[in-house]
Design goal:
It holds the Pfam family HXXSHH. With 428 residues, the protein is an alpha/beta fold. The protein contains twelve helices and eleven strands. Helix content is 34%, strand content 12%. It starts with 9 loop residues before the first helix and ends in a 25-residue tail after the last helix.
Length: 428
Amino acid sequence: MKKHQFAIGSRRSFFKSAAKMGLSSAALNSGLLGANMLWSRGALAQEGPAPKRFITIHITNGAHPNNWHAKGEGSDFTLPQGSAPLGINGIREHCVFIDGLDGQGGHGPHHYCIANDKKTSLDIYAANTIGAETPFKSLHLAAYPQGSLSRINGNGIPFDLNPVKVYDRMFPEALGEGERDWTTIRRQGIFGANLKMLNEFKKDMNATQRDRLDLHADSIQAMSERIQRAASASGGAACTRPFWDGAITDTELLDNDALTGAATELRTRLSMDLIALAFKCDLTRVATFSFGHSQADVVLPTGFTWHDAQHGYNNHLKNPQGRAWFSEQMVYLMNLLASAPDTDGRTLLDNTLIYLTSDMGNGSAHDNARMPVVLAGGLVKGGQAINMGGAFWNPLFDTIADALGIPLDAADYPQYGNGAGPISGIVA
């Protein structure tokens, strides 16, 4: 028997019905979000393509090239210590390892790795295209303060350090009263928030509008019951299950700078959990995560700061260890996405592009040669290593846009690749 999953699209139908009653979608959106109500985008899975999603992972200070880049090309390659975790079964076949790309940036101007020479970064442009219909156009999370990566018209966007606080903003207390009880919320369904809001709207309606809204409320309740039954039978309801169950009591680890390895790991893992959960609920389709700026003293669980792993002997010894830990975090995120069903019967990973990047090639030399870049997910032809032979990285940005389904000839496309076009053989 075919299982049902939560899918996308019920909100659009609701707004169409509301419009016939003289209610604008703008007013309804404003009311729902402004009143701290979570609008459920859930419905039973429908035929058709799932939305594409985009994640950028930024690791400052590059990598020791000999301990990061793949040895070999095509499908016949091995991975050294720094990238080895990405070579395990179930992960390797989803990754494209790119060597021989030269970029620009270095200390300070991190935005080049996601904006090239443009004033608005590619993640923001993607948020306004593939993520235009979601409640939150993009997420910007970090393990350490970061404000110069994602940009709008040349202005840096602040990154959130506390994923639990971001979670509270994205998943407000759905029923609007009492203590948060996720078991109750799951049982009653987030549709309850919508029904409560509809009742508030009824106060300002005439009799005809109230009758029509009652009919629509009945359909919402019926759909809610269908979803509850389907979820109970199939183990679904993924988007009503929080990634945080209240077990974290020492949130000071998340409120302060990442001064300990435990804080860095906690902040990183919860950020990855939040990204996956937000994708499940289609609250956003674009997320950017940074491990901090190039001068940041980010303490890793390996016992040293990432900045101290850049120079001299440490660049050969500690840099590969640190990069291996970073790779493990990417594996963690990929596994989360791979285990989550999407609306088309595939997985979230199948419909996501992950862009692993840096502001430098080799942090020891502060250069921008051989940038450590990986493209991963189901939107690329994984399981291969490519060497660009020292080419400038213009085509990388067009490759990302093309994989996301963004027309490179669109009138408003900022030409991130400056006309280079995508790298052949990468986009699925």
